[in-house]
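As a warm-up, study this chain.
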Amino acid sequence: MRTSSAYATSLAPNFGANVIYDEIVRNRFPVVGIIGAGSLARLHLAPAIALGVDLRVLATSKDDSAAQVCNYVIGDRNNLSHVLDFARQCDLVTYEDGAVGPSIVKGLEAEGIRVYPRSSTLSQSRDREQLGSDLDLIFAVTVARSAHGQTCTWSPTQVIMSDGNIVGTVTPAPLITSEVSASAAEIALTLADRFGLVGVMTVEMICKGGLLSPHKLVMQPEIYGHWSIEGSVTSQYEQHLRAILDLPLGDPSMVAPYAVMGTVIGRDKSDMYRPYLHLMARNPELKFHQYMNEVAPGEVVGHLTAVGDDLVHLQEIIEHACSYMSGEIDE
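Now compare it with the structure written out below.
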């Protein structure tokens, strides 16, 4: 059941028959496994610690972003035997975007492993390459849904692209009307219910001549919702854990009128620590997220977020900070 607000959490169901709670949480805190150990897995760690959840990752190397800070198992995520060995150490399993294909997820399901998103949901993913590139405006709505069907959305996010890559987001999307925002949220909620989503999904949309069209579906937490770590009461990463554990969902409301996020791109000889001295003094409101992966030219090595009530100021400081961190400017 939905509430009147497009962004509010839908009315909570009766959790008295929550199987996961009854079997796991009553006796101990659960073990959640993530297949993949990149930056997206890493960003789940802070909310997992806060919730008392034991987070483990299936990594390809001890140097993977999440393996540096989480309990990890080394294995081949494309090898069903390896993935099953890992999954059997966990109460339930989720996975990073792009980490595994539907065949691996189906293999886990066939062995009775609790894995989310389900294979039937994963098969609904679509890429913008399939849908064309003649775009007027790209924005995204991130939605969460629990196994009991409780749902919520975050404010629509404008997606900033450069050379085909996402380099930033602005939330709420400033170039769409409140009516379009409400319609976009309703589309995301409808798709989440239709696909039987359990977890977090982002629906990337295009707006052409005032008409909305779903453009890309991502079935796990992704870059679109990075802003929510500082910008909302409940981040997409905490919400994903709540949803797959079938706990009541948190409040997705924004904590400030605007949230702006920008990615940090690696360059040769990039020093990711020294820039703190300048940037923290210049703009103390900045929040930094280092992924601690290898600093390679063209690779995303972190992101920055700022929240507040002056959108122009937020965009300026994020653009400056990302350029400074990447070594494009030196002042």
